[in-house]
Target: Phosphate transport system permease protein PstA
Amino acid sequence: MNAKTADKIATALIVTIAAIIILILAGLLGYILIRGVGHISFDFLTSPPETIRAGGGIGPQLFNSLFLLVLTMIITIPLGLGAGIYMSEYAKPGRGTDFIRLVVEVLSSFPSIVVGLFGLLVIVNLFGFGFSLFSGALALTVFNLPLMVRITEQGLKSVPREQKEAGLALGLSKWKTIRSIMLPIAIPVILTGTILAAGRVFGEAAALLFTAGMSSPRLDFSDWNPLSPFSPLNPFRPAETLAVHIWKINSEGLAPDAPEIAAGASAVLIITVLLFNMIARWFGRYVHRKFTATK
Model:
């Protein structure tokens, strides 16, 4: 077999695999959206489950998912960025650094049910946070932190060495070089890790069953006192997220229109993730252009 034939076969094989992956993704998204979009309405998105239909309405669950995303990212992003910067620029090569990287790899492969049980025993019971959004955010941080650390480290290492050395040669401190030169260039890579971490927050259910809980108090959206037990801004209240609600509505079988509710909630979840990804990528490109003065 000559080189041209081998190249054509390899190209055809790679294109075929890529097409199969795209078709699978398109089929999955199309199936979920076609089944669920027809059940979405304004009342469905804003009303609690007990107000319309038997089990219908996902307003509190949708809000809980978004609120949990914000809490988790507030915890994950500073810790992930700090650890990634340390591993990339400050940690000296050696057994200690290799051990830290091994721990990060192990954490990233933990099953969600194990993290959920850990959260139940340590965060919920031992630390006394109870079933709450804050407990769920801490449990999800265990998932997301390894990803953020690795992505940040890889993003900083992808910065051309010449640019880093140019900053140091101009008399900039190491931290000033990282903050003003390296981080803006690495933002697209770091943003990709943030999007992946956020997607897991939206879709995670197993860990949240044992930490955030499977029920929510009747929320009063006119009460914005974060210390009130019925306030939607209270991070220490139990909260059923959208992914948990989909699992619960199907497993209990109490609602006569459970398949329709689950289909509509699944479509909302997919649309929310897609919108978040597009907005985050647009914001990342804007920040990258702003800091690097590129068009």
Residues 1-39 form one domain. The mean pLDDT is 85. The two ends are 46 Å apart (CA to CA).
